[in-house]
Amino acid sequence: MKKYILSAMLMMGFLSFSIAQNTVAPNETSEEMKVVDGPQMKFETFIVDYGTIEQNSEPLRTIEFTNAGNEPLVIKNARGSCGCTVPTFPKEPIMPGEKSKIEIRYATNRLGKFSKKVTLTTNAPGAPVVLTVKGNVLKEKEGVPSAEPNILKSGGNG
Fold first, then answer.
1. Which domain covers residue 111, as residue numbers?
2. How many domains is the chain built from?
């Protein structure tokens, strides 16, 4: 009797597994042709890389984007992850196909490696866009001493 119940359970398990595998694959061509209506913010990259820079050097960088959608794109808000990263964004709508820029100012008086986030809230469907701002700030180079002899020498005729 145990063998009969075990056989029936195994048969049902295999049957349910084979039924689950009979799903229809999505049509790949219909997925490619699907166009999402509305605005779409498209970037070449989501990283603003300052590279290695000197302390107190130029703090401003820009990143370009395109409205790849079919409706005007409106940036509602842009917020840095801390007060040292300040974004400036266009207040007017960006028309379909138009390019625009976001300026990001980082406090380059802070030494060391940094990685910050800028979050953009728009009228485009989906989650907010998050940009990464990174770089390394090295100590400012001090002036090179001149080649003139020092008039304050130790041990002279006094």
1. 41-138
2. 1
